[in-house]
Amino acid sequence: MSIDVLKGIGMPNDRLRDALLRHGLTPERVACELGVSTKTVDRWIRNETMPYPKHRFELAALLKESEQFIWPDALSPERAAEVAASEVVTVYPHRHEVPRDLWLKLFDGVENQLDILVYAGMFLTDDTALLKKLKRKGQNGAKIRLLLGNPEGDTVRQRTAEERIGEGAIAAKIRNVLAFFEPVTGEAGIEFRLHDTTLYNSIFRFDDQMLINMHVHGRMAPQSPAMHLRRLFEGSLFELYSESFDSIWESSEPYPSTH
Q1: Are 120 and 234 in a shared domain?
Q2: pLDDT tens, 202-238?
Q3: Are residues 111 and 191 in the same domain?
């Protein structure tokens, strides 16, 4: 019966069900861990009842997911706003004001997941040790996903025109960045893709922390604001940007092309 609960079709709380499956957890195992009945866990999966806050916290910790991701409606709007504010570590008026030491600390601290979504990200090539770091982290099991703009895409041309920096300027930057990363293309744990999506933000995820570079019409990315986020179990802001990255990743083309 418990396997049917996990693998059934049309279960209301798909996020909880899928998280349990990813971690190989049955309702019986969860019930034992949390000190509740298997029927109670089954009702959570079917979304017939909402776990108490204590159990939501324990289950989110067990699944390594945020409460807000698994139970989007669990928090009141007021509480959700409070938690979102707590996720914001600081806001910088311009990305170029983010301390270099912070960038280095975040890159060095990655153990499990590094996601980068940009048009070009030319400033990344300033770190001469970055390639060795990425290769080592990928070999140690980290999942590294880098999303750059398609230099032949319409959105790159549009962004170039909006910034008024000369025809083909951003496309040329992207090609330079791709050449910089060429030595680690195809290395274990490292994936590259090209997107043709209008970016409202550049996203840099370092495990449970993020730097979000907001895009401002007519301004280059270094001149636009940046926000430092830290993931909280009850939070929704970190998850919002994570889902945005995943959505663009799924619709992007592998690089080098598999065709």
Answers
A1: yes
A2: 999 999 999 999 999 888 888 999 999 998 877 788 9
A3: yes
Residue tagged 């895009």 (tokens) = 215
If asked whether residues 234 and 172 sit together in one domain, one would say yes
User: What DSSP string runs through 64-116?
Assistant: T--HHHH-TTSS-HHHHHHHHHHHEEEEESSGGGS-HHHHHHHHHH-SSEEEE
- The tens digit of pLDDT for each residue in 231-245 reads 887 778 898 999 999
Predicted TM-score (pTM) of this structure = 0.73
Q: Are 156 and 138 in contact (CB under 8 A)?
A: no
Give me Rg for the CA atoms of the chain. 21
Same domain, 137 and 210: yes
What's the distance, CA 257 to chain centroid? Answer: 23
Looking at the structure, tell me whether residues 193 and 151 fall in a common domain.
yes
CA distance 254 to 145: 11
Q: For residue 188, give its domain range.
A: 83-255
Whether 34 and 96 map to the same domain: the answer is no
- d(CA 50, CA 40) in angstroms, rounded, equals 10
Tell me the one-letter amino acid at 166: G
Q: Is there a single domain that holds both residue 155 and residue 179?
A: yes
How many Å apart are CA 226 and CA 230, to the nearest integer? Answer: 13
* Predicted local confidence at residue 182, as pLDDT: 94
- Alpha helices, DSSP H only, in the chain? 2-7, 14-22, 27-34, 38-45, 53-63, 67-70, 77-87, 100-109, 130-139, 154-163, 169-181, 237-250
Whether 169 and 233 map to the same domain: the answer is yes
